Input
Amino acid sequence: MTVTIDKKLFIATFGCQMNDRDTEIMAQLLSRSYARTLELAEADAVIVNTCSIRAKAEQKAFSLLGVLRKYKKKKPEMIIAATGCVAQQDGRKMISRMNHIDLVIGPQNIYQLPLLFDKIRKTRKTTVATDISPSFSIPPFLPTMDCGLPHKRFVTIMQGCNNFCTYCIVPYVRGRELSRSQEDIVAEVRHLVSHGVKEITLLGQNVNSYGNDQEESQRTSFAELLCSVAEIRGVERLRFTTSNPKDLSDDLIRCFVDLDNLCSHFHLPVQSGSNSILRRMNRKYTIETYLDKVEKLKEVRPDIALTTDIIVGFPGETDEDFQATMDLLEKVRYHGSFSFIYSSRPPAKSCEFEDTISQEEKKERLAIYQAHQKEITMERNLEYVGQTMEIMVEGESRNAEGQWSGRISTHHIVNFTCAKPLVPGRMLMVHIDEACYNSLRGTLVDG
Ligand code: SAH
Ligand code: SF4
Ligand code: F3S
Output
């Protein structure tokens, strides 16, 4: 018997890769009843996967949820669900603010989606499912294979965060650190590669502290986990994100010597170049220890690309503190960075700190930082010109036939021309001819 799937599901995803992965899981959990659509107008159900890391991210989610009111008016049977970190934080409050929402569901509860959707369809009762249970464990989720897998895939290795950096909302909305078992992770990766996946990215808010919550007798460190995933046949490229530098161990640095398929990219968020700001952020490392780790990484993998996150305008940031961040940029010469103006996120602790810098000043500092990073990124990109490098094919450009893109191990995008069809995930050699701000341009070698 063939089952026809006549309902359509629209999912909007804000925030980090944790949300991206949850979106994949939700789509798969509902795939027996709903096909994905990119057209809001034809959706029978809409899920808004929200992020609350900065005020702007939260506003974006609320504004989309606001727009959905008029869609629901036209199609009253439409199910509207909110998940992600705003949903976890606000719970029922979200429904009192927007009564066209049917379901508010926390990231830990998404596995109940099929059941809750069924209930809502039958009863039309608004539902809130945001319990965080101390005994929760991530289900050994093996993706269904009927929709064809892309060449790269995220695998969640842990949820939550214990660090309580003073500016950050994550520990309040994602709960305490919870590591998946090594067996579950390895089984999931094996399953993925046996179905053609070539690149795996291990995901967590702070992957370096993987295993710290496990019982001592069964504890696996992140470096050990990385080794066991790297040796699975078929894992051509292995990446991970994100890492708090305080937990970056020598064993992990050693992985960059031992594991050939571990990519030459490290996203190592520093947040500030000033020790006094780092102390007040509760980051638990100093610039000196950070730079020490950066040096070690560059020593063992000279081609490693380093990227970072920066917050400017943290409460009380002086001109000297900001200058220290600019000096750090010059010292590390990051290949790229994400930089943000500090955003106050209650109940995070820094909301109580005295903030004397005007918003104008913060914007100015951000612009100065970003302009300098842009220059360095360009100089870094120019270093690749003239080299022949291996890329993994990503796909064909949507705008122009015969135009393809791929990524080198460092995560840089390379655009190139190829008249023949290529399969995403294929490895090819390209000669890099040109550098742009956001990508490189190359020519296929023997293509
Ligand atoms: N777990 C990662 C960070 C995840 S959040 C780590 O510890 O490095 C992603 C980035 O958002 C952070 O690195 C930080 O730069 C930024 N961010 C977090 N809270 C913020 C806030 N309140 N205001 C501005 N930027 C913030
Ligand atoms: Fe937030 Fe700090 Fe945890 Fe990263 S390590 S998620 S910045 S509390
Ligand atoms: Fe945002 Fe939550 Fe990720 S706050 S950055 S979606 S963990």
